[in-house]
Amino acid sequence: MRRLAIAAHAASGWITTMLESRITQPPGRRKPMVLAVFSYRHDAHLVPGMLANIAPFTHGYIGWDDRATREALSSEPERRNRLLAEARRMGADWVLAIDPDERFEDQLAARMPEMLAAGAGNLWHFVLREMFSPSAYRADGVWGAKTLLRLMPIAAVCKELAVPLHAAWVADGNGFSHRQSRINLYHLRMATPERRAARRALYSAADPERRFQRLGYDYLDDERGMVLHPIPNGRGYSPPFTEDHGLWAPAPDAVGPARPDPMEARLTYVAQSAAKAGHAAALVVMRELCAASPADADLPHVAASLALQSGHLVEAEATANALLARDGTDLHARALRARARLQLGQKQAAASDIAVLEHAQPGSPLVAALAAERDRDLADFCAPSAVWRRWAGGTAHCLEGAGVAHADMAVVVLGLGAPPELAEAVASLLAQEVAGEIVVVNSGGGAPEAVLAAYLDRIRLIAIDAPLRVGAARNIGIDASRAPLIAFLAADCLAAPGWISGRLARHRAGAAMVSTPVLPIPDARLVARAASLLKYWVRNPATAEADISHFGRSYARWIFDEVGPFPPGLRVSEDGALNLLADRLAQPVWAPDVGTCHRDPEGLWALLADHRARGRRRADHPPFRALAGAPDAAARLAADMAARQAGAARAVDATPGLSQPARWAMKAVQALAVGADRRAVAARLRQLAAADTAMPREARGQDARAQARDAFAADGEDWQKAFALGEAEAAAGDWAAAEDAYRSALALAPKMPAPLAALQARVAAASGPKAALAEAEAAALAAPVIAAHWSIAAAAAEAAGQPAVALAHARRALCAAPASPAAHQTLSRLHDAQGNALMAAFRRLARDRLQAAATRTP
Length: 858
Hints:
Blueprint: E1 2-10, E2 13-23, E3 34-40, H1 47-54, E4 60-65, H2 76-89, E5 94-97, E6 102-104, H3 108-117, E7 122-130, E8 136-138, H4 141-144, E9 147-153, E10 177-187, H5 193-206, E11 228-230, H6 263-274, H7 279-292, H8 299-309, H9 313-326, H10 331-343, H11 347-360, H12 365-374, E12 396-400, E13 409-416, H13 421-430, E14 437-443, H14 448-451, E15 460-464, H15 470-479, E16 485-490, E17 493-495, H16 499-508, E18 513-515, E19 518-520, H17 526-536, E20 554-556, H18 557-563, H19 574-582, E21 589-590, E22 596-598, H20 604-618, H21 633-654, H22 660-694, H23 702-714, H24 719-731, H25 735-748, H26 753-767, H27 769-782, H28 787-799, H29 803-816, H30 821-833, H31 837-856
Parallel strand pairs: 3-4, 3-5, 7-10, 13-14, 13-16, 14-15, 18-21, 19-22
Antiparallel strand pairs: 1-2, 2-4, 5-9, 6-10, 7-9, 8-11, 12-15, 16-20, 17-22, 18-20
Helix pairs in contact: 6-7, 6-31, 7-8, 8-9, 8-10, 8-29, 9-10, 10-11, 10-12, 11-12, 17-21, 17-22, 20-22, 21-22, 22-23, 23-24, 24-25, 25-26, 26-27, 26-28, 27-28, 28-29, 29-30, 30-31
């Protein structure tokens, strides 16, 4: 053990502080050394438990004893810089940062070797679990989405830290990949109301201008809207903690007076909480902001939207009623009320609102969507005007069986080219003990009526001649179904017994989304079973909670109303793109007993060919796409594939009933498949890097046009290349080709504003402002959580001479981003143009305060 006395300057003079370091267990030969770093003061009594917690996965520690400091709060960057300097001196390869009031979950001991093996180019984040009781953590909103960077290679901590409060341990993360460990870090300080209140008061006084945390500190001890989750089985920490009910901090008034959060901090909290499935907690704060400024007619729109998203439908309707009582021409309030009434089942009342909107906004895609929801129960899906046809892009027809079930769950079966197994997928659904509304969407021709002849009277079949991407096919199924819950089944899969009933049980218990595992086909041979565990070890009934990948979801229909449909242009990962947005509304519930059986190749050569094809496709999408052109791409790819293989091997070991030779053989098959996958990814990444290099630097000129076409042809899954092609075609004067390219970019990435702005401008020039408005509204519907889309739609409405519609869209933008200065600015300008000086002043004040807060943040 090494103790070092260091002179440190405090406001009251020079004092002595102690740095202590110790190697507890030397790393093995050629193994990286991990040293923990921490400081302690009022929480010194927690250090022994912390050291016991980290002992299994560290080789030593460096601690800063801060108890002699005379200031209420000593310099955080100074302490951290001293600790990191000592870690460098001791030869650490990795640094693990921790505080005495924190505990890593025990699984880190098993995961640490895998994380270190991924290479020194990674910065590892941990899921912060703020304990609100000795055994439960808070999971709603910002609480459930906190992650902290705590494991860093020594090369990442060479620059001096300077930010006084709430800063990361790495001053400059450029050149490193941020990775999620999915390991929990439990924060014990928040486990009592007294400590929560003390923490709020301390930071509120230390950061009176909220320079270092823009969402403020009032939320720290605000329990309204709180959702607690118990520590899951198998994810605990050791040694056990015994609560002592101390404050572990200076007296709350030691730093200065605590001040409540200003309006701009509260708006920031609302925005961040709502973006992380914390709509109920955000609604509580929004109610208070509305009460504090009763003359502000914009903020209640945000409150009504939050009430709608959090399931407070009666409140949403009541808030919209109040807005309409104030201004009967408020189109956004009327749309909010219509949406609330539709979800409440009040379709006649909603119809009156929709009629007003149809009169005010004839031809609007937004109003058409509301009307489609109003008419869903009686819709004729075979009609030439059926809503689903917007995704078909060509010849398509619908066959409606007389015995299609009226059910709580619709199941959309997805086929391409009417393969023979399509019939088996449908049969597995018809064999369920609970009936589902079965909608088969087959694109790419074939003979679906012949393949499904035995079942046509019990299904709704939609057949599209042209092949569609999976997202477009999913969207057709959503549009062409009636049930309030929607699930999907691919043609090469079977629904295991209980597939519908297991989902329904979770949904009826309150789940908005239910995720499920994948199983091999019954009686699958060894190669297919090995392949299933390799591809889906993160979606196995026995998958550890930390490793679960929440796919195979069923959805409440309202999820699509809030986040939009699936991206129609992506070849794969369309569900991942939508889930990223859906997770902002609610967290999926895992149903390990709801199995989807997937067909995998039975022979080794077919399996290797399948994995080569999967590798080529995989490279086009996250996380691998980011490796194209990276100098350490090969090492990072190898580490990632090694982690996948290790996870699959664990799944083999956890599978009961296998002989030891069978386990060896399955692992050997998996190793060969991973090798084929890795080589295919690497080859495709080289092609993508070349396509990136070929991108034109300027949009103008025939060379730029040719280069943009070549780049997009080589990398057709990249919306940026589609957009660059649109810009090049526009510069060359080929407006039709430019529009096509912009639409391709939006089909790949519906939430990106740049291609929408370009497309809307092009349509306005070619077809007039009303057509441009319809284009903007359709794109906003495809990504309704993106404020920029609604702002573009507002500008289009203004250009079309529809000021009431412009105001409605600008208010929708504010609902999507209540802490965005741009959203407040747009509304301020529109209020000014319509002669409402008071409302314009409200929005300018909010804009100015939000901008000032942004400039104060380091």
